[in-house]
Each structure stands twice: as C-alpha cells, then as structure tokens.
Amino acid sequence: MVNNPESDATERVSEPITPHNYRAVRFAMLVFITTQIVPFFTLFSAKYLYDGFYVSPQANQGFGIAVSVLMAISAIVAWQAVVASRVHQDRDLVGSRLKTAMVIGLLAVIGEIYQWGMRYVSPGSRFGEMYYMIFGADYVYVLAGIVMLAIAIIRNIRQNMAPERFWTADATVYFWIFVCLAWIASWFWVYIL
Amino acid sequence: MAQAAVTPQKAPNTRPKKAMMPPVLRGALWALIGFLLVNTFVIAVDPFRGHPFVTGPSVVLGWVGALIGWLLGIGAYESIILPLMGFDTKLVERTRGWRRYWELATDHKVIGLQYMMYALGGFLIAGGIAMLMRYELMTPYLTIFHYPSNYLTAVGIHGTIMMFSFATVFMVGGLGNYFVPLMIGARETVLSKLSGLGVWLVPAGILTVLFSPLLGAWTTGWRGYQPLAGQDPNGILFYYLGVFALTMSSLIVALNLVTTVMFRRAPGMTWGRLPLFVWGQVTVNLLMLIWFPEIQTTFIMGLLDHIVPMNFFTATGSPMTYLMLFWLFGHPEVYIIAVPAFALWNEIIPVMTQKSLFGRQWAVIGLVFVMMLSGLVWAHHMFTNIRNSEILPFSFFTEMISIPTGFAYMAAIGTMWKSKIRLTTPMLWILMSMFNFLIGGMTGVFLADPIVNLQLHDTFWVVGHFHYTIIGSLVFTGFGAMYYWLPKLSGRMFQETWGKTLAIITFFAFNLTFGQFFLLGLHGMNRWVPAYPSYLQPMNFEVSIFAFILGAAFLANIIYIGYCWVNGEKASDNPWSAKTPEWFTSSPAPRWNFPVQPEIVGSLYLYGEGTKVPVVTTAYDELAATSRQSTDPHYDWHDYMPKKPKD
Is residue B601 part of a domain? Predict the structure, then answer.
C-alpha cells in the first residue's frame, strides 16, 4: 500500500516532522550513535591491554562467521526499509523489511546464545573474560535495537506513516545498523585479531 | 529574510477530569514494583547465591527494573511510549503552577529549573555530609563515625554527589537548559521530550548513591579506585549504578543542547556571534559526549568484577587499567565543570563594565583548546604510579593547559581595563571566582611538577587545590550567574546590600577554610583519614569552624535568592542593559520564549556610542500569519526559507 497522507480522514496519523526538524533529529541520532562507538573502543582497548591479539583455539570460528554474516544481512535488509520509505513511500514494504531484519537479527543472537550455552570459551581465562564482556555488551545493544524495531513495527501497523513521518523507522534502522556493525567489529576484534 | 513564527493562539487543552496519582508518587510506586519483580525473579532463577533475598546480581538487575518503573511512572508511559507506538494519550502538559515542576515537561525552562532544583538538593545533601566530615576532623580520633570505613563512605558519597549531580548538572543541565535556547533566540529545544525524561534520572542517581551504605560501606571515594572497590561489600554497586544514571542524564543534556545550537539558532545568530556561555556549553557538551560513555563502560566492567565475578581491575587483574580509564574521563570532568564558568566570566563582565569584550575570538579559542588539551593530561593524577619517562609528557601538557585557560583571564582583564566597573553582586561573585580559580590554578602548577607532586600526593594540599578550582570556579560563578539572571528567572530583583554582604562573608569563609588546607597539607595532614596526629588538631579544629560558617553562608545565599525569587521587587525586562537575546523578551520568558522569532543583526558584545541594538524582532508576522506554519511553534524558521534554485 502506497501512502497517501490525505487519503483517509479517519485513519490515525503520526505527527508530521518538518524538513529542518528532520535534519535536526537525524543529526542528534547520528551523534548519539557516534558516542556509542566509545564503549566499544574502550572494550577493544581493554582486550588489547589484557590479551594482545591472542585468539583462543576454543573460539568457534564457524559460528563466529555465521553470526556475523547474519548480522550483515540483517543490516542490509534494514536499510531497504529506509529506501522503501524514502523512494517508494510504501508503508507495507517498510513494515516487512523491518520484520525481516528483526527476525534475521534474532537468528544471529540465537546462534551466539548457543555458543555461550555450550561454553566453547572458558570464562576463567583472560580471553574468555573479554569474549563474554564484549559480546555481552553486544547483547545489550541488540536488546535495545530489538525493542526499537518492535516499536517501529507496531507504530507502522497502527499509523499512517506519511512520507514526512517515517522518522521512527529511519531512526530505528540507523541504530540497528550500528548494532550490526558493532557486532561485526566485535567478531573481527575477538575472533580474527 | 521573510519569516516569522508567532505564538500559537490555540485553545488550551484541558487535563482529564479524573484525578491522576501525582507522577512522583506513581514513579516511586512503579519503581518499587519494578525492583521487587526483577529482584524476586533473579533470586528465583539464580541457583548459586544461597538464601538472602537481596544479592549483588539481584540488586543490580532489580535497580534496572526500578529505574524503568520510575521513568515510566513519572510520565514516560503516557508521554513517550504510547505516542511512540501509535496509541492515543490523554496526557496534557501543565503550562502553569508549581505542579509542572514535579512531572515530565517539555519546556526547556521548566526542565532547566528541575535540573537546578535537583542539583541544589544534591549540593545540600553533599554539603551536609561535608559538615559531618569536618565535625569528625575537629578531633584527632574517631567520634561520630565509629569505623574508618564509615568515614570513607561519607567522603565517597560527598564527592560523588557533588561531582556527578551538582557540579556537572547545575551549570549544564540547569543553566544550560534554561538559557542556551534563549541566548540563541530559539523557541524550544530539539529533543524536548528526551530532555524532559533525562532530568528524572538525577533524583534516581542521587538517591541510589545516598542509599548505597544500606548494602555495605565502600571505601574508594568518588573515584571508585581499584583494587579497593573489588574488596568492598555491595555498597559500591550503588555507586556504579548511581553514577550511571547521573551521567546518562548529562549525556542527554549534551546531545540536546549540541543539536539545538546546531539547528535552532535565530536568523543572524552565526557561529561568530554565538554568546560566550553558549560556546562554553558546546565545548563541554562535546567533552561529555566523548568521555561519559567511556566512564560508563569502565564502571560496568567494575560492576561485573563484583557480581560475576570477573578480574578486570581486581588485585589479580589490572588496577592500573582502571586508574587510566578513570582519569581519562576524570580530568576532562574537571573542565566540564570549569569551562562554563570561564565562559560566564566573559558573559557577565562586558555587561557590568558596559565595555566591548576584549579579544572575543581568543576567549572562544581558549575554551576550545582547554577542551582539546583536557584529554591529554590524565596521568598527572598518577605520578606515583607511573615511570619517570611517562611522567614528563603529562607534566608538560598539564603546564600547557594553563595557557588557553589564561585566555579567559586575558579577555576578562582586558575588558575591565580602564572601564567603569559596576560593582554589582554578580560582578563581585565573578571577581571572587576569578581570584579563587587563580589560587587553584597556581597551586595546580606546583602539583604538575613531579618532584613536588610526589611529596604532596594524597595530602590536604591536593584537597585544597581541587576545592579552589571547583568551588572557586563553579560555585562562586554559579552564585554570580544566579544573581545575574534572577530578574530573568523570576522577574524580580534582589537588594545589592544583602547580596554583596552575603558574597563577602562567603568569600572570606571559603578562603579561611580551604586556604588553610594548603598549610595542613604541608604539615603532613593526609586525605582519607578520620584520625590523625594530635599536633594537627588545633588547625583542623579552626578549619572546621570556618567550614561551618561557609556552609551557613552558602545556605544563607540560597535562602536569600529563594526569598527574592518570590518577594523581591519587580525587575525591569533588561535591568543590566545586556545585549544577549535572553534579555529581549519578557521576564520570565513566555512558553515559546519570544512572541515573534527574533533576528540577530549585530555583535552581542559591542558597547559604546554608535553600536546598534543587536537583537530585533522585526514583524514579518503579517507574512507568516497567513500560513499554517506560523501558528505551529514546532515549525522552525528554517522551513520558511525559500529553497535555493537548483543549478
């Protein structure tokens, strides 16, 4: 269904956002996301301080790659939601892309939970401490991203997100892409370097 | 430029007739429910912790549940969550009356006053604890604190609340939120709802730190030093969590103010015309955006050391890493506190001298360079822990940072040079602040020298130094700013005689208290000890007496400002003949700050014959009155601008 903000007077619509305000909130979101690079920088520095570039043979490389690839796919699908809103202004397409991105992201998380559950990496080692710390931080961000995705999906179902009103979906996607990139960076730092 | 935005004339929305539970009460109730639910759940699923109902992990996760409950209960549920998900909400924000200060608001002026209120609460609590500490130190043996660990916990709570809920919050969350939008000619902030939510993290953080002794004494001071923290009981957990809430609040403020300055400046408010105070806010906001996530991560690692347990910073881990990570944040934190004060000196002095600001560009460059250098000096807090070869660069940068700091003095002194100073109460506070910070800075130069540092480390010299820099800059300038902006905040004026008398008493009490800290330090008085050699008792006794007078003087100032706020004489709209935009609207400012969008047409710091009025409210409203946008305060003037033709 292509949006038409004036099509149905009885339909619930979200508050409009003006072009300048849109630029302002997008700037704020991007600044916020930039600040959230700092925790990962801190954790990666700590990993280097404690453990150098050591990678434990216990780390399951296959799972590491699989989870990261899933996260990359999830990020690409999420970006399609932004394209769907900006180019096609198609509310249904935005919703379906958000749902797909969330499902793929959840699959990735389940893969990582499986690794944690199998205790491939011993938490008693220096490598293990940083492994659980860094991916634990990723879990927190994933949880926040999932909540944001869920909110955007619910809002998309309930409201007519007219062309100038897609900011909720945009913001969610920006954050989710950051979450995915942070996960991939964590994989690179912990599994590869 | 043909645009204007006039104040909307909509019919006011009415609040639902059904009585709501007061938001603060509901927040407290939901916080209790959140804590009990999560804590009980953790106890039920955690098979390793034995029988107690409250354990380290359960209290941490329970606190998270309580915080979420608190924020939802205070109004986030109706104001943010429901609209975000597309549900209707009946919440109508109050626009008048005292109750609006006790619920979630979106007006930056209400939010600014809420921040000031909680910062003041933190100041009084932490100040009260300081009085207890000084009472303890009147005698060389333990009196009111029965164990050294209790005294150290008091020191830690005092420092933590002062640093994270007063020093960081008052100038930036309080004065910044209130005045930055007014000073740039904005009608509201960009992230007003988020900002309204963030303020409620402050009381949550203060109470968390205040109640930390319920989980056991902690002995680390405001720095959470390892490996001490690793040995402490669970009280340290509430230190980490409280600081997390407080820094998160300040992070929201920083994000909101930076975005507002970027996108909501009035037409004509170029970066070159930006008020000094706003420059100060932007620089410290950038520091906060960089360093607060860093310290939050560090504290979470420390927290996990305690409850998992890990060994990041414990005695078997790397305490040095903690020290590094803490001071990487810790020293910029000092400038987060001081830079707004430097900016305010040069905001108020040109007004009180009615003379153009000397070296304006250098004053701004000084603020920016202090910001940049502040990230290069952290290890001077650790000269006793690092190698000689590592000391030298940090000693060098520490001495270097005094140069851009000096730019603030240069601009201030250059402005006062050969001027006719109006020695009003705000001006007096500013001059006192400059004197105090000078003493703090000069004693800091001694500490930047490694040889002297190794002798004076952990003595009262250091305590005197940082109280001079922080109280000297922040609190004195803060009082100066409150007296300066009181007519704007309340529409009322104070009496100069009372204001000056109280300022002078405070100044002498402060210097007689902390000036003697240097002597105590040179005589061998150590920090972190409630008991000390008896030969230090007479001076300690005397210092405590002056400290009580200082506490009373601060309290008297606060009471007097409060009294004048309500009962002072009516003030004119611009009693100081200032030129910054906040004085070009009524006092206090209306809901959307300016009746029509002001325009900046000249420098805000030029005085003398022939200088024009820099703020005009040219009536473009007859043009805008025909458009929908003119009645929508959320509609920014940028959106009226004709689009550039595409090439």
Answer: no
Q: Which pLDDT value is given to residue A8? A: 47
Total domain count for chain B?
A: 2
**Residue B195 belongs to what domain range?**
105-570
Q: Domain with B162 in it: what CATH number?
A: 1.20.210.10
Asked if B325's CB is within 8 angstroms of A31's CB, the reply is: no
Tell whether B17 is covered by a domain. Answer: no
B183 and B330 part of one domain: yes
Hey, where are the domains in chain A? 19-46+59-192
Whether B54 and B170 map to the same domain: the answer is no
> In the prediction, which pLDDT does B264 show?
92
Q: Which of residues 2-21 of A touch B (CB under 8 A)?
A: 12, 14-15, 18-21
HSE value, Cβ hemisphere, 13 Å, CA-based, for B406: 6
**B330 interfacial to chain A (CB closer than 8 Å):** no
For A94-126, what is each residue's pLDDT tens digit?
999 999 999 999 999 998 888 888 777 777 888
Do residue B293 and residue B394 come from a single domain?
A: yes
Q: Which of B293, B301, B636 sits opposite A38 (nearest CB)?
A: B293
Beta strand spans in B364-421 (E): none
Euclidean distance between CA atoms B200 and B193, whole angstroms: 12
Radius of gyration from C-alpha coordinates of chain B: 25
CA distance B302 to chain A (A): 11
pLDDT digits over A70-100, tens only? 999 999 999 999 998 888 878 889 999 999 9
> Looking at beta carbons, which residues of chain B come within 8 Å of A35?
251, 255, 289-290, 292-293
Q: What residue has token string 């549900």? A: B87
Interface pTM, i.e. ipTM? 0.90
Task: Assess if residue B593 is contained within a domain.
Answer: no
Whether residue B54 lies inside any domain: the answer is yes
| A19-46+59-192 fold | Four Helix Bundle (Hemerythrin (Met), subunit A) (1.20.120)
Q: Are residues B69 and B193 in the same domain?
A: no
Per-residue pLDDT of A135-168, as tens digits, reads: 999 999 999 999 999 999 988 888 766 655 678 8
My answer on whether B535 and B407 are in the same domain is yes
Q: Which residues of B touch A136 (CB under 8 A)?
A: 304
Of A31, A39, A50, the CB nearest to B297: A39
Q: Which two tokens stand for residue B627?
A: 């458009």
| Position B487 pLDDT exceeds 60 | yes
Asked if residue B145 and residue B40 are part of one domain, the reply reads no
pLDDT surpassing 80 at residue B163: yes
